[in-house]
Amino acid sequence: METLAKKPTSLSTDTLLTVDHVTHTYSNDTEHPILKDVNLALKENEIVSLLGRSGSGKSTLLRVIAGLTLPTEGHAVIGGKTVDGPADGVAMVFQSFALLPWLTVLANVELGLEAQGVPPEDRRRRALAAIDLIGLDGFENAYPKEISGGMRQRVGFARALVTHPKLLLMDEPFSALDVLTAETLRTDLLDLWVEGRLPIRAILLVTHNIEEAVLMSDRILLLSSNPGTIAAEFKVTLPHPRNRFDPTFRALVDDIYKRMTARTDAAKPGTFPGLGIGMVLPRVSSNALAGLAEALISPPYNGRADLPVLANGLNIEADQLLRLAEMLQLLRFAELAEGDIKLTDAGRRFAGLGVDDRKALFRQHLITHVPIIAHIRRVLDERPTHRAPASRFQDELEDYMDEDSAMSTLKAIVSLARYGEVFDFDKETNAFSLDNPV
What angle do CA 419, 210, 167 make, to 5 degrees? Predict the structure, then answer.
């Protein structure tokens, strides 16, 4: 595979990507844009991360850049050409592996080249080189079901790289992997980048993971939520390979935590920044929420903790902790500010109650503070059959967010509502009902 020359020690001044005043809304909901007046530039030989909380529009922005979504206002420019459809010279790696199960590793990697009309012999040669580069030599004839999740994601990377794109877009590519597999794949990719062996000129990474962003990036762009816009930029000048325990590394992680949890005018005590039923809900375990509340009320935290310290103390990934903390905040069981989490009086009660009383309090706060759950319950109460298709609510959510976010939010709703016994979900009929709840 053709590769770039070894990366220079300083970043190129050549701008590869420009995002110019991009605003995007769903279903003409101009009052609640998912993105508003976003501007950014990406130079050659640069890795930039887009970091933000759930609902900040990170994935939507990536789709605008890739040409998969046309913005309501503004535009993206790649290599001097305005993006008005699937962009040339751009490849994308997704969170889900998105492999065709009936094709071998080799055939999956060849797909993009086949779509470009590359002759079979050239396709095979380039695909084999990409497979070798990404560390899958020997698995060319394996099928996706025969290899691990980490290997399947490596196939996704090989499929993206084989087309020799100028720009590689990555949408949380490591989040579906276990911690050790993600760390190995992340390290291997960085090694190839630093050695100049990747046939790409720049990388734009979407992530929830603060430490991942600091490990990989030359710059980190923090998106605010509701609407998503560039709220801050952090430059990372640490040399590779980076040490998570370096004081400078830890200080930067702490600074980003503080900025991500900084209180805004829309997030004063007793309020939560959201879009009514259009909030993107993070997918979290209800048991993990209860466990976090219990941990917080116990020594040495006694109801309040610094998030990075808490992550280390509980041995939990930073992005997972932030999602749990966001949900506790949404339910008014906790407040987030300046990198700290503090249990509210309701949160202290939640942590100390027995199972049945805890569920009752959880149910009360779900219905009171999560508009989409209150909306679904109200619809079910009003219908004689007490049933409604989930597709009805997915369509409503898609007025505010993209299809993937709507599906993810519905899954979060199912988990939360079941724990709180607000309503039930039948997977076979894809319908919500009041068959079991109180």
Answer: 115
Q: Look up residue 346 and give its amino acid.
A: A
Radius of gyration of the chain from its Cα atoms, rounded to whole angstroms? 23
Q: What is the DSSP letter of 282?
A: P
Confidence tier at 420 by pLDDT (50, 70, 90): very high
Category of 182 on φ-ψ map: left (φ > 0), alpha (ψ -120 to 50) or beta: alpha
pLDDT digits (tens, 9 = 90+) for 11-51: 456 889 999 999 998 775 667 788 999 999 999 999 999 99
Q: Per-residue pLDDT averaged across 400-409, rounded?
A: 83
Confidence of residue 8 (pLDDT cuts 50, 70, 90): very low
pLDDT of 22: 93
Which residues does 274 contact at the CB level (< 8 Å), separation at least 6?
A: 55, 226, 330, 371
Mean pLDDT of 79-84: 89
Number of H helices, E strands in the chain: 15, 16
Continuous H helices in 169-264? 179-194, 210-216, 247-260
Q: How far apart are CA 265 and CA 58, in angstroms?
A: 22
| Element at 147 (helix H, strand E) | none
- Residue 438, judged by CB atoms within 10 A of its CB (0-12, 13-18, 19+), counts as exposed
Q: Of 221, 236, 280, give the one whose Cα is nearest residue 19.
A: 221
Question: Helix, strand, or coil here: 168?
Answer: strand
Tens digits of residue pLDDT in 133-159: 888 888 999 998 998 888 888 998 999
User: What does residue 278 show for φ and ψ, rounded to 5 degrees?
Assistant: -90, 15
Residue 259 pLDDT grade (very low, low, confident, very high; cuts 50, 70, 90): confident
What is the model's pLDDT at position 183?
Answer: 86
Q: Is the dihedral of CA 56, 183, 144, 114 positive or negative?
A: positive
> Residue 30: which residues within 8 A CB-CB, separation 6 or more?
none
Closest CA to 398 of 24, 23, 26, 25: 26
Taking a C-beta distance cutoff of 8 angstroms, is the pair 364, 357 a contact? Answer: no
pLDDT at 437: 58
Give the tokens for residue 402. Answer: 């993209």
Peptide bond into 437 cis (omega under 30): no
Q: Measured between alpha carbons, how far is 82 from 368 in angstroms, rounded to an integer?
A: 45
The answer to whether 71 and 24 are in contact (CB under 8 A) is yes
Strand partners, 42: 17
Which strands sit side by side in the sheet containing 35-43, from one edge to the other? 35-43, 15-24, 73-78, 81-82
Question: What's the confidence (pLDDT) of residue 272?
Answer: 45
